[in-house]
Amino acid sequence: MTVSVLVPSSLARESNDKREATRKVGYVARAATVFRVDRITVYPDREGEKRYGDGFVETVLRYAATPPHLRKEVWGTRDELEYAGILPPLRVVTQTGSGSEGSGSLRQGIVTEVGADGRVRVNCGLQHPVSLPVPSGMDEPVEGERVSVRVSSREPVRAKLVDEPQPGYVVDTATLDSALARADAGFTIASSRYGERLRTGRLDELAARTSTDAGDGEDGERTYTVAFGAPERGIPAVLGIEPGAVGEDDHCETGRFDLWLNTVPDQGSEVVRTEEAMFATLACLNLME
To answer: pLDDT tens, 97-129?
Structure first.
């Protein structure tokens, strides 16, 4: 399954200070990790931004996704990270947990030195940086690049570079339209109070619509992208359209999304915050079979 999430640069628009803004972005990172989101894209919403815009949101999201043993070396000291200490731990399953120090654990490392003999030195959270050969067929990393390391033993150290995806989510920036037009966007969903109310019976239909055809009538990998708005500034406001233009069907006049979906029907609060909407929406979609 491949899941992408789009959040606006105005994500922290209602935060009164940097501490609260950091905490809010941290909850978004936490939701993305809990539900195995592969990519978070921060799209610009200049009209909705206040003190903490896209540079802040992107930096905090990237920092939160960086393994603790690499944060100091990767990020150093930055103004946006003044309150990074309050971020909730993500505890990505491939980085931490009972099996993370055992045989075959996959860890992130950062290249600290590139040698002339086809070897690189990598800091991957062991006692000292380790010298590892670059596997045949793998592009030689450059200094400062993050790489994946498979650790089979800590005493003595046995590890190797592997050409495998980094655990957790990645972060990038793009316009909303560009993100939705990506070849790997899959089925696109706008999370909105003005969308179609999610019903239990709808999940089976959504499961079919978010899956690629694997042949012989079987579904393949499920791929979808979910876009969220900002507090008191939902996606219709971001796009500059009237809520009534969203409609109840999958082919609304905006034409940007395959489906507008309300995953918090009869909400008891006037405003559902972005991080709250992420937990609610991704939890529902996680039930698709």
So the answer is: 334 444 467 888 999 999 988 999 999 888 888
